[in-house]
Amino acid sequence: MNDFQRLALRAAISIREAMLVDPSNQELDLPDKDWNRLQRLLRQKQLAQDHEWRMAERIINTRLIFTMERLATDLRQRTRDLEQSVKSRFPPPDLRLLYEELIALPNEFSEVSIDLRHGILRVVTDEITLEDITLGRFDIVYNWTSEGPGPSYDIHALDPAPSNANSDFVHPHISDGILCEGEAKSGIEAALAQGRFCDFFLIVASTLNTYNDDSAYVTLKEWYGTPCLDCGTSCSDDDLTLCSGCEDPFCHQCCDSCRNCHDSLCSSCLQSCEECSAPHCGDCLNTCSECNHDFCSNCLTDGYCEACYETLSETDPELEEEEDNHYETTHPQQIPTPSTPAETTSP
């Protein structure tokens, strides 16, 4: 028996002892950590809404959804564990099975380690590549002394290649070290309950090598894109527009063009004409000399908006006369010269 086999035997004994603990004798606690995180995220969401930080709000919403789903899953698991402990007790896995599962791990993974002091079983995956995007190796860590209602494991990136859209995500299906198990959930739970640790790590590694666009926290098509500073959507360079005002990148949907000079501008740099509401850049709007509001050139007459011009025309005769002179100059009357009788009478 080599050093690893001796260590695996001691770990198998420790794991079996942990599985022998009657869950009905344990104090029933609630997931306070996730609940407190949920409250903190709600405060952050309100702050982002108050300041109109759209990208920050999008990221917070993603974390809120994940935290609420994890909280609901945790509560369901605690409910199942309590029901199971009340109904019946199942015998723990045989010590030989646990030992054989542990010594089989080096045949499947290039790096395996056991930490008896902290109750940790750890393996390292091969380099993971999803749709030509290299995400690197991942550390799968199982803790058999976890204080939670069931077995606990988390995942960490050893060669992190985070998303450009959100650097918190190192894998499309991992958030805060927790894997979105999807269809693999039942297989993972069964493997751990039966002490099939080699199967457990293989299932998790296989899940890491699988991509589902519908359940991804960040999709692969967004992975190496540049995030739009308004809506947060990650885009390729061809799908981005630089705002002519602030020179920041935005997606095509979050940019519009000035109706006069046709420059592309983000929503923060665009202004609307007070009369027709057409978007313009600041340089293409003029201030009404009377009300000091901004209007496009089509909605101003002699420097006044329509409402101010009509009001001033009623009170200022000179302005009305200027309007009449302007009309006569631009619309000259063509009055034909009357013919004389002598010119119309034949000799």
UniProtKB/TrEMBL annotation:
Entry protein name = RING-type domain-containing protein
Instruction: Report the source organism.
Output: Rubinisphaera italica
Q: Please verify whether the record's keywords include Zinc.
A: yes
| GO MF term list | zinc ion binding
Extract the ranges annotated as region (Disordered): 316-347
Name the domain of life. Answer: Bacteria
Keywords assigned by UniProt, alphabetized? Metal-binding, Zinc, Zinc-finger
Biased region (Low complexity) positions are 336-347
What PROSITE patterns does the database record attribute to this sequence? ZF_RING_1
Q: Where is the composition biased (Acidic residues)?
A: 316-325
